[in-house]
Amino acid sequence: MCGIVGYVGDSDAVPFLLEGLGRLEYRGYDSAGAAVLNHGKIEIRKAVGHVSSLVEEIKSHPVSGTSGISHTRWATHGGVTLENAHPHRDASGKLALVHNGVVENHKDLRTELESRGHVFASQTDTEVISRLIGEAFDGHGDKSRDGLVEAAREALQQVRGTYAIGVLHEDLGDFLLAARRGSPLALGLGDGGQFLASDPAAIAGWASNFVYLNEGEIAWLDGKKFEVAGIDGSAPAPVVVRSMEKAAKAGTKGKFEHFMQKEIHEQPESLREAMRGRLIADQGTACFHGIERSPEELRQWETLIFTGCGTSFNAALAGEYIIEFLSRVPVECEIASEFRYRNSPLEMGTAVFALSQSGETADTLAAMREIKRRGAPTFGICNNPFSTISRESDGGIDLRAGQEVGVAATKSFTSQVLVLTMLGLMLGRMRDLRHTEGKKILSALEKLPDLVAETLEVDEVVRRIAKKYAASESFLFLGRQANFPVALEGALKLKEISYISTCAHPSAELKHGVIALVNESTPSIFIAPRDELFEKNLSNIEEVKARNGPVIAVGTQGDDVLADLCDDVVLVPACEDFLTPILTVLPLQLLAYHIGVELGCDVDKPRNLAKSVTVE
Ligand code: AGP
Question: I need a labelling partner for 62 at 20 to 30 A (CA). Which of 193, 351, 496, 541 fits?
Fold first, then answer.
């Protein structure tokens, strides 16, 4: 969470800082700020709210200079106030610092600093870092750029937790310092200047190449050159310079009103991309370049563990049902924040997959690192092949969904489920799945993007349903088998976009307690396609109707039983049972979107959330 952009070079830093921050708003948007070196003095501008508020602030109080750092915040320590917005200064006021991460020992460090006379200007954990670095620098005899690097090293050795930082000091001219432990940070290399960014997408179009800082590295740069070293003085890993062309470009909304809406409608294309070159027609199977293991090695995978958070976890859970059905390989799904601390047995023959749209989620990354430490093979399923999870795993699968800007994950969910389905096909074909069955599945997969496009035609129907139920105070989501994770996902979408209370359960759990919530004003949404458990779902719908609960059903085209029984029905095309989650989730994404719009919510930037959760 939180996004950092820095610039040092020949041009005015401010336009880069502001536009770059706008591209990083997916990382947080509580408040924003920038520090610019203006004729040898650091000037800071801050604003509470979105980056657009900072743009307005700078319009009213202009500032310019050829180096600067900036930050968009997702509050962890300290409320959403101007004082707590970054950048933060040191005691001398000459140093400014931006930070993404959490300082776990900030209380102890603050007490120590206060005992030495420091008077803090904010409630943030970040300010201890700016003060520690400033204090070390001022205490040194060496007031050169090297002196600041040494001071930062000294200070950072005292900091426990996670950080990506950018630092500017007014005595050192056009010069930036950066360091990273646990939070991502990249250096952007251009002709007229150099950059710092939490994500290379923030500086796409300006820098030609970029370098990811590795864990525990410190870097310093001016407009022309940069150097990298270990914070602890160790030699850095070899510097890998990557071409900017391959970094995700920042998207635009095109003809759509919101990114979420655009991303929902992009799914036929994102799913086509996820399959491109990965289906082997004559063998009736799938392959992934990122999982280059011999068939013998793949056959040795006796158990798969999937870990992730939020939507990625829901996709993993859908994958569990599908992969076990297709390949008979046992799958366990683990919520990353729990998994990382659990003393779970890890049998030989277990492969672990970390699912993450961003590839930066702190809990998922930590769970993967713990598993890697224990020697099991780890794979990332991410939408950014340059992300930390992608880089640190032993291999993986690129979702190829294209940049997802809306905080609510939509197209990444369907791409994750599709990729897991292809993984199930691949593993199944190495075990008991016959050639003819494989080919049948393959041809069903090839038809999927068109079925998704057809399903999205329910948009208007769903918009009307959204209008009808938008005032409801809570919703229940119910489904069975691989459509139970779809219920979880529908409930998550609705609560995060519209702030309506939702819960999701397997349909049969109704009578074990959930049914107590049923009343005339609480809609139940049943995901009830014509699969082998359709009749069972029908009985559950009857149970809700018997208690006067309104029911909205997501069913299969041609179904008139649902139409007779339910208050509202949305129908999706018929397909193989194991592919239904990719279709049935679409009306739920649309429902969340339209209810959010109906209620006047900021659907792309819901309150209190951030797209990329890089703190624990
Ligand atoms: C989904 O709509 C949410 N914004 C959130 O649950 C998200 O899926 C979760 O934070 C995990 O993110 P990741 O996929 O980038 O790891």
Answer: 193
DSSP for 330-384 reads -EEEEEHHHHTTS-----TTEEEEEEESSS--HHHHHHHHHHHHTT--EEEEES-
Q: How far apart are CA 103 and CA 86, in angstroms?
A: 15
**Residue 459: DSSP 8-state:** H
Q: What spatial distance separates the first Cα and last Cα of the chain, rounded to whole Å?
A: 10
Give the residue, out of 25, 259, 307, 309, with the most ligand 1 atoms within 8 A of its beta carbon, to mutate for a pocket test.
309
Q: Are 566 and 526 in contact (CB under 8 A)?
A: yes
Give me the pLDDT at residue 26, please: 83
CA of 534 to the centre of ligand 1 (A): 30
Asked if 77 and 123 touch (Cβ cutoff 8 Å), the reply is: yes
The pair of structure tokens assigned to 189 is 């290399």
Q: Is the pLDDT at 576 greater than 70, yes or no?
A: yes
Structural domain including 205 reads 3-246
Report the pLDDT averaged over residues 586-602.
98
Give the pLDDT band (50/70/90) at residue 329.
very high
- 396 has which bridge partners? 380
**pLDDT over threshold 80, residue 615:** no
Give 80-99 pLDDT, tens digit per residue. 999 999 999 999 999 999 99
Whether the CB of 388 sits within 6 Å of ligand 1:
no
Dist. CA 51 → ligand 1 center (Å): 22
Q: Is residue 615 part of a domain?
A: no
Q: What's 77's DSSP letter?
A: S
| Radius of gyration of the chain, Cα coordinates, nearest whole angstrom | 26
Q: Identity (one letter) of the amino acid at 165?
A: I
Full-model pTM: 0.85
CA pair distance 156, 153, nearest whole angstrom:
5
Kindly give the distance from the C-alpha atom of residue 367 to the centroid of ligand 1, in angstroms, as a whole number.
Answer: 15
Separation in Å, CA 188 to CA 3, 221, 247, 596: 15, 10, 11, 37
Q: What pLDDT does residue 141 have? A: 81
153 and 174 share a domain? yes
For 139-168, what is each residue's pLDDT tens digit? 988 899 999 999 999 999 999 999 999 999
Assigned domain for 342 exists = yes
Q: Same structural domain for residues 320 and 343?
A: yes
Q: Going by CA atoms, what residue is nearest to atom 2 of ligand 1? A: 408
What integer pLDDT is reported at residue 395 of this predicted model?
Answer: 94
Q: How do beta strands 41-48 and 31-38 pair?
A: antiparallel
Average pLDDT for 355-361: 95
The residues annotated as belonging to the active site are 2, 611
The 10s digit of each residue's pLDDT in 456-473 is 999 999 999 999 999 999
How far apart are alpha carbons 409 and 417 in whole angstroms? 13
Residue 577 lies in a domain: yes
Residue 413 has φ and ψ, to the nearest 5°, of -65, -50
pLDDT digits (tens, 9 = 90+) for 391-410: 999 999 999 999 899 999 99
